Amino acid sequence: MDTTASDKVLARLKKLHPVEIDLSLDRLYRLLEKLDNPHLKLPPVIHVAGTNGKGSTVATLRAIAEAAGHRVHVYTSPHLVRFAERIRVAGQIIAEDEFTAILEECERVNAGDDITFFEVTTAAAFLAFARTPADLCILEVGLGGRLDATNVIDKPAAVGITPVSIDHEQFLGSTLEEIAFEKAGILKAGCPAVVGPQMGEAMGVIRSRASKLGVSPAVFDEDWYAALNPDSTSFRYQDRLTELDLPLPSLTGEHQVTNAGIAIALARMQTAVSIPDAAIRAGLGWVRWPARLQELTGTPLNKLLPEGANLYLDGGHNPAAGHVVRSFLSEVDPVERSVTLILGMLNRKDAKGYLKPLSGVVNRVIAVPIDCDEDPAEPGFLAAAATDAGINGVIAKDVASALRMVAEKAHPERPPFVLIAGSLYLAGNVLRETGLYPN
Predict the structure, then answer these.
(1) CB-based burial of residue 15 (10 Å sphere; 0-12 exposed, 13-18 middle, 19+ buried)?
(2) pTM (two decimals)
(3) Is residue 439 part of a domain?
């Protein structure tokens, strides 16, 4: 798909980024007013913040709502391959010609004023959504919550906060309490709220903010609950009004049960559209969210591995994601399979924190560079971090070379299990190489 036209506009918009950031939404409000306030013309909005699981929760909620027959706008970030992936208009990724035209309109109306890249592209999303009829709009917070560009919606139909952990410290603060304060900024007086599992410090901050607003949030393990059934082939969702035995979501990993639970609680707490239990069951079966423990099959990369090998892709990049990966890899029989992690990360991420939980479940880390403009970590640094975590760490020039290394050392009777992980940028590179473009 040719995205040259929109890429050129996006490149120009990046140059409008202010030298000094004033911590407010004034720039965005100014642009929205010039655009005739498209954010006030959206269908009912469900707003989702958090550190881990936002994207999966949004994808699951979208699947459930669409299974109920609703047209749904969705705004997410970041993208994996094409920027347009972030804007899904009434169920479809925005068309290239429409995307280019809306970006150019925002550029023209902004008239060269300072504005951050995320602010102007969020305005573009709102403009696209306002011009196409839909029943529901789901917005994923880009960063934080309180001052995020998506937080210009005064009266959402519901808000959700997924698990909060340490990430983006340079923007949100160095403590869990500071980060939770930013996430809790999406709570609104009079709006239903769902809160996923939280560490104690984060939960205290969220409760405090909710109390000041007069909001009584539906809290995990108090007002709603989601957990695997003993057979591990289904899960139970329960809230104060209902109890449902449901099929596992099609997304891989036990943590997706919790994400599904947040989505179900949001679907049940909002009153803007009707979502029957049958739609919840159906939506869980076809939800898709690329690069979240996504199994790769039949790709050119699979052909580099011996027969019987498994290849997965994941974009998780913080210590909490490391624990999720550990839980996933713990299901692999260490006697029958050798586990290799092909790792690429950004410098600003906590590589040691990500790798520490993986000691004992990963046999080897092969560190690779990432093709991106966001200060990728040197493979040598990542290999050393793996060694410090008690895992054999080596380097390769790229993912294909790493896979060939795996194949060369594979035991003939122990097919390798390989996970490519550590960065959404790396995941995007892999999806681009394999032709698995999100749709």
Answers:
(1) exposed
(2) 0.93
(3) no
